[in-house]
Amino acid sequence: MSRAKTxxxxxxxxxxxxxxxxxxxxxxxxxxxTAPLVLTALGNQFVSFDLTKPMAALPLQIYxxxxxxxxxxxxxxxxxxLVLIVVIGILSMLTRLAIRNRG
Length: 103
Prior knowledge:
The protein has one domain. By secondary structure, it is an all-alpha fold. The chain has helices at 3-32, 35-40, 58-66, 71-102. The radius of gyration is 19 Å and the shape is elongated.
C-alpha cells in the first residue's frame, strides 16, 4: 500500500473524531474571540467579502453595542450574545451526534 493510501484509509478514519473536534473548537474559539477581531476586522458594520477591507463580526458588534449609551443597543447586544452561544451550542451538539453515529 502506498503512503497516500495508508494515510487516506487508515490514519484519517482513525483520527476523524479528533479532527472533527478540532474543527468545532476552532470555530467556537474564532466565534468567541473579540480582541483579535478588534485588531483585524477594524470595526466595519457591513458585511464585506474582500479580505483587505474591514469586515463585520458578531463579537465586535456585541462589544460596540454593549459599550453604547443606548438601552436598545444593550438589548441587541444581549440578543447577539445569545445567538452566538446558541450557534456554538448547535455546532457542538451536531459534532457530538456525528461522532457518536460514525464512531
